[in-house]
Amino acid sequence: MAVPKRKHSNSRTGKRRSHDRVKKRQVAYCPQCSSAVPTHVICPKCGYYQGRTVVESTSE
Q1: How many other CB atoms are found less than 10 A from the CB of residue 2?
Q2: Other C-beta atoms within 10 Å of 8: how many?
Q3: What is the model's pLDDT at position 59?
Q4: Which family does the similarity line name (predicted)?
Q5: Neighbour tally for 49: CB within 10 Å
Q6: Residue 19: DSSP 8-state
Q7: Of 59, 54, 33, the residue nearest 42 (C-alpha)
């Protein structure tokens, strides 16, 4: 069974984990109602996605 001969330094461990952080959600603005919406998501206010209304809005 392979066992490391020496402990990895904190610096080396940190370098390896540098890409594991949680990244911010990318936000775009809905062309229909101009509200901030995460990319690749149907707009919760107007139901607009990729140039067409996908879900009818329930606001009355």
Answers
A1: 4
A2: 11
A3: 55
A4: Belongs to the bacterial ribosomal protein bL32 family.
A5: 16
A6: G
A7: 54
How many angstroms separate the CA atoms of 54 and 6, rounded? 58
The per-residue DSSP string of 7-59 comes to: PPPHHHHHHHGGG-SPPPPPEEE-TTT--EEETTS--TTT-EETTEE-S----
Q: What is the token pair recorded at 43? A: 């707009």
Two tokens, residue 13: 């461990």
Nearest to 39 by CA among 56, 27, 51, 48: 27
Between strands 48-49 and 27-29, the pairing is: unpaired
Residue pointed to by tokens 């949680």: 22
| Separation of alpha carbons 17 and 11, rounded Å | 10
Main-chain phi, psi angles of 28, to 5 degrees? -120, 165
The pLDDT tens digits of the residues spanning 1-35 come to 899 999 999 999 999 999 999 999 999 999 888 89
